[in-house]
TrEMBL record:
SUPFAM superfamilies linked: Class II aaRS and biotin synthetases
Native source organism of the sequence: Coptis chinensis
Transmembrane segments: none
Protein name, entry field: BPL/LPL catalytic domain-containing protein
Keyword Ligase: yes
Xref: Gene3D superfamilies: Bira Bifunctional Protein, Domain 2
GO cellular component: cytoplasm
PROSITE patterns: BPL_LPL_CATALYTIC (PS51733)
The family this protein is said to belong to: Belongs to the biotin--protein ligase family.
Alphabetically ordered keywords of this record: Ligase
Every BPL/LPL catalytic domain range: 82-272
Amino acid sequence: MSVTTPLRFFNPFQPTLNYYHLFFSTMQNLLILHGKSSFETELAQSLKTNNTIKLPEEDAQVSILVHSSEQRGVQNDAFDVDLYMNSLTTHRYGKFFIYSPRLSSTQDIVSKNFSEIPVGSVCVADLQFKGRGRSKNLWESPKGCLLFSFTVEMEDGRVVPLLQYVVCLAMVEAIKDVCDVKGFAFIDVRIKWPNDLYLNGVKVGGILCTSTYRSKKFNVSVGIGLNVDNEMPTTCLNKVLSELSMMDCKLRREEILAAFFKRFENFYHVFINQGFRALEEMYCRVWLHSGQRVVIQEKNNEDESVDEVAVTVQGLTSSGYLLAIDDDNQLYELHPDGNSFDFFKGLMRKKLE
């Protein structure tokens, strides 16, 4: 259970030496607010002054600070807020920024404060100790991950399930964009339906979208975890990049996040105005499943036996499920059964007319 917890604030008028001693010694227990424009900056100050931010019970000891450029470089491995803001070129998304070195869950922060912060606000953490995945699974969050959640407001509930595909596509294209700008080698990150990112057959990222319906609108909190610079226990973007390149090159979390919001803002505009069909061709070019053969196991009610039916994935249906065809050219919509951790080992088929 989460509760609204009174917050402790730093007094910016304390002597500089005492202020920075306190800042250094309590870095892990900070929540830093920042804005791209004067509007977001003033909002950050207002939220701090009015003690408005709601925190999960696990983060009860976190204190609020409004960011200033003098706080750069406090920790070498901390998220560089200024680098991110200087790289950000969006009109709406990612401009109101919340950061903490350590949080229970960025998803909980944006969800609890949805009505207090602008649509498109983002929360970033270096470490999470209670990150969430699908079906209440925990997402492991070691240092070196890009861990963030942001807010989206939608009116048409029929397309809310498709938002995760837009997010996946935006992240894949953002990674390519940063590599292109930096002159780095191509990293072939792919989408595993419905909400995972894979590199060389290994999962390097996951997306989680949760929503609530309020005042005739859907408040969607989008959470993302991406292995940028943490090769254990599996692999990460920079590990693969180092294997592909002779020069010393590294992707930065801050630049990936800024590139992501640029891509997402563009894709989301297309998605809302033209539908996902306008993005589907691009999406299918970077997912793992075009032409994939899937064996569906179906229970025979007459003799309790299990029948196996082979189908080939063709794309996505209008509702966002997998579109497949069998050897008799009959089309099917494939649904996860909700029990299997691997979607492709627990699919059910629905015949399409």
